[in-house]
Amino acid sequence: MDTTRLVRDLRGERGRIERAIAALEALGSDSAGSWTTRTAGANKAGRRKMSPAARKRISMMMKKRLAARRKAAKKA
After folding, report:
1. Where are the alpha helices (DSSP H) in the chain?
2. pLDDT of residue 27
3. Among residues 9, 29, 5, 28, which one has the least CA distance to residue 17?
4. How far is it, in rounded angstroms, from Cα 59 to Cα 57?
C-alpha cells in the first residue's frame, strides 16, 4: 500500500474521531455522570448471592489447596 494514501486515510479517520469526541463532549458531563451511576447500580443489583453451604464448601476447598501448597513448599 502506498504510504501517501495510508497517511491520507489516517488523517481522514482522525477527523471523524475528533468530530465524534466533540459531539460526545457537547452532551455535557451530566449525562456521563448519570450513565456511570446507572451502570454501577445495575452491576450491584444483578449480583448473585452465595448460599452459606456453598461459601463453606469453597472455604474448605481453599483451605485444602493452601495446606497442599504449604506442604509442597516445606519439601522444596
Report:
1. 3-26, 29-45, 52-75
2. 83
3. 9
4. 5
pLDDT for position 55 = 94
The number of angstroms, rounded, from the C-alpha of 6 to the middle of its chain's C-alpha atoms is 33
**How confident is the prediction along the chain (76 residues), in pLDDT tens digits per residue?**
688 989 888 988 998 898 888 888 888 755 545 555 555 555 566 778 889 999 999 999 999 999 999 999 988 7
The cell numbers describing 3, all together, are 504510504
Q: Report d(CA 33, CA 63) in Å as an integer.
A: 42
Coil, helix or strand at residue 67: helix
Distance of CA 17 to the CA centre of its chain: 23
Angle at CA of residue 44, ends 63 and 41, nearest 5°: 160
DSSP state of 17: H
